[in-house]
Amino acid sequence: MLLRVENIHKSYGAAEILKGVSFDMAPGQSKVIMGPSGTGKSTLLRCINHLTPPDKGRIFVDGEELTAKNLNTMRQKVAFVFQDFNLFTHLRTVENVAIGPRKLRGFGKKAALDLAYKELERVGLSDRADAYPAELSGGQQQRASIARALAMEPKLILFDEPTSALDPELTGEVVSVMNKLASEGMTMLVVSHEIGFARKAADEIIFMEGGKIIEQGPPSQIFNAPQQDRTRAFLNVIEHGDDA
Amino acid sequence: MIFETLLSQMPYLVHGLTVAIGLLVCLLSLGLALGLVLAILEVYGHWTLRLVCVLFERVFRGIPAIVLLLLFYYGVTDYIEMGSFTAAVLALGLRSAAYQSQIFRGAFLSVPNGQMMAARAMGMNKLQAIRDIIIPQALRMSIGPWTNEFSSELKATSLAYVIGVVELTRQAKYIISNTQGNILVVFGVVALMYFVVNRAGNWALYRLENRLSLPGFEHRGDA
Ligand SMILES: Nc1ncnc2c1ncn2[C@@H]1O[C@H](COP(=O)(O)OP(=O)(O)OP(=O)(O)O)[C@@H](O)[C@H]1O
Ligand SMILES: [Mg+2]
After folding, report:
1. Which of A189, A240, B128, B152 has the fewest CB atoms within 10 Å of its CB?
2. Looking at chain A, which residue has its C-alpha nearest residue B218?
3. Is some CB atom of chain A closer than 8 A to the CB atom of B136?
4. pTM for this one?
């Protein structure tokens, strides 16, 4: 298994947010996590790379357990793409992508830039390499942040609602980059309510509610014949709007 | 004639000015280095370190500059050998560090959380993230407020004359006592010299701020 999530628990104060979450991912798989707001999806992703250390439970990447000691090297294998991009504002797009290889992977300046241009090309942003993040559209910023993740050559990329800060017309360009990565065999764990991506690229949908996985299975099963009433009700809302 | 006196004394005033500027550069550098460290510890450090920093900052901001100068020169030189210039650099520099730490602290806090989070998420340790991501952004935001610090410290260098640093104000006093009088003219020239250095420094810092400003983060309009 590339990723093993084992019985993750997390509380904030008295509120237990994650109540024992476990699942595995094989190399090359894409999984989409769905579920109502406040259910702990972001908390789960953040626990996976210890941005928020879990209270209980274990995370294994490529068979190696993530601990406080190997945190920084393990995080290089598990990239994170944020809802609000978080590009480094003082660096040009290409420098945003090059900084990881340069500072963390021992690349020389030239090699890091070469790699950065290659990754920008992969997300269709070569022409904006010299722009600062504030000069990019939301969709371009998110594609740049995906390029930044790719430049770490990670084993796995975690995406936390990568398109929900974007206007609908910009969502498409990000989703198509994600589709392409999935088809190239990148292992991706995506929190998203983007049905298009989930149907086309996901090997499995994980449906969470109340800090637990309540249903999981291939998209065809989850979307066409969900077993749980809660899953069905939730999918009705996101597929047809609130009045469904 | 007064203008002849002024002309003949000019080399002393210019020398005094270079001493004042030397003192300014030294104290601001000490203040910058220590102020940055204090700010980093205050924002990202363990609470015990934070406490030490806050204490330091309160003490040095709470005592008049002139008293600090006297304390360092007459108090500390009893135990550690140092000249009046060194004592002035330490007294004013440590005080400047306290003020500068507040400038940098504000700047660190105004860098959005997501920047640190993204840096840590890619595998940077805390120090790397502070050095490569936070400081470059925070320093840019600090230049504006730092300009005020430059101005106050330039003026504060004149206080060093009380412990015998022969800087610009001290030179003026010498000239006045040697030439009996001319108080208004001599101090007028001295005032002009401080004023010009102050404006030049402000202008240079403003230029620097503009040069380093990032698209989307311009703080001020055109000059
Ligand atoms: N740092 C924190 N301190 C306290 N409570 C938190 C913190 N972060 C999250 N929570 C709480 O944990 C719960 C789960 O939050 P989380 O962001 O994981 O939900 P989510 O499933 O990602 O929701 P959404 O779909 O709205 O993004 C929420 O009730 C939230 O208020
Ligand atoms: Mg969330």
Report:
1. A240
2. A134
3. yes
4. 0.90
